[in-house]
Write a structure and sequence with these properties.
Number of helices: 7
Largest sheet: 5 strands, parallel
Order of helices and strands: EHEHHEHEHEHH
Strand content: 15-25%
Number of strands: 5
CATH topology: Rossmann fold
Helix content: 40-55%
Structural class: alpha/beta
Amino acid sequence: MTQVFIAGIMQASRNDRYIEAQDYRWQITAVLQNHIPDVKVIDPFAANPNSVEYDDKRAEFTFISNTRKASNVDFLIAYLPVASLGTAMEMWQAYEAGVTIITVSPLEHHWAIKYTSEEIFPDIKSLSLAIGNGRWKNWIPDKAKQREARRRIG
């Protein structure tokens, strides 16, 4: 089974209790399910659709536990049309664990994206074409290297 974590903007740079549109998650999930046999998608928003209503204790647990999940997958897809602190943390967690990061973003020169991502796509359509042609098979890292990276981060 291939496990894929979908990271991406939720609050982005908002200064209120609302979130950005999350339709990109369903688009990416559909592409993964159509092209990768037995894929398991880990989507923090799908698991917690009302998280902006959580009390502080539950919100903290949800945030920290979901960020940790990013390090225990075969690859992570980050959707970043704008900068996102939470997504950056998920990407770093994955990077430190040796998980391949695939990013969809126009911010290709942003260091946090440029230096942690294996590939950067300008849009979901380009990502979909890559997944559809089987390129996703190259995104699954060597398990021994991944285990060694996980040991380094504890």
